[in-house]
Amino acid sequence: MNLEAIVPKVVAVFLLVALQVDYSRQALPLVINTWNFSNATLRAHQSLTVGEFSAVDALVEGCSVCEREQCDGTVGYGGSPDENGESTLDALIMDGTTMNVGAVAALREIKHAIAVAKHVLENTKHTMLVGSQATDFAVMMGFQRETLQTDHSREMWEQWKTNHCQPNFWTNVIPSPSMSCGPYEPISGNSITENYLPEADDAAQKLEPVEPEFGRYNHDTIGMIVIDANGHVVAGTSTNGARNKIPGRVGDSPIVGSGAYADSTVGAAAATGDGDIMMRFMPSLLAVEGLRQGLSPMLAGEAALARIAKHYPDFVGGIVVATKDGEYGAACHGLTQFPYSVAQGTEPEAQVVVKIVNCRKKRN
Length: 364
Description:
With 364 residues, the chain is of the alpha+beta class. 26% of the residues lie in helices and 23% in strands. It starts with a helix and ends in a 6-residue tail after the last strand.
């Protein structure tokens, strides 16, 4: 029986469990990205194999899928509202051949962050544009100004306000951020810092502060690596940042060396997780330097995250790493498992494979 005659030629998504083993093979072109955002992986890979796009354009195509699909509610418009209820976007592209970078941060009222980052890369001599001025730049480049708020993001924000603005990212301020929505001011030597509600009676109990939690559905990034058949290495990210963030906050995703890093002579890495912590250690750069020293992709990723865990043992994060030849791996910390998506080879109908790596545990 000719199975090819009866089996539809469709792209299958397989789930393979990588139990701390680097099940990778060397084949170009390669697309690998954080999480099981397989539609983005497929679009980027087909852009290389069918569309014959450049590595940069393939990465933009892939990350744009997640921006449109609002992957896990943490990429693109309508997610992670800040304290004012506004969604803002961060994105980064690094070209590992030219070592040029284009990034946007706290981008307002523009849905296509990764495409705007490409214009920063190709149409300016700058590395990053931020805030409302980045919006003005995007409009000059032909993008439409439009709200990023949706009914769902407004509902999330209203629920957060109803819950006394818990959790939040304030510390060492009055009134107490464990029960108040502010406005805040720094604690001084004469400040009274009781955590009671202003209208509470003597029998009222103190409100315990709620710490922000980091995970796939409230603080996530698509981090993608694209390597074309000629070994041109590109890496990038797109995210809407941390939910309930203080307006103006920028995390690790658009920061070169932290959110992503690429070098066509070595390889690339892209990270996701608790960006306020991770950006202090430049894990993507550390991972690429690990490759340069001869580590495998998985070990290079583990070494980069171990540097963070030494100082912040409870942080949450993951990283994907690939060599210029197409060997790849991933590492993670603080989660149970970390899925990532891979497509490689020259066949237009190449399979998107979702792999899972077990993570280093948080401190007990």
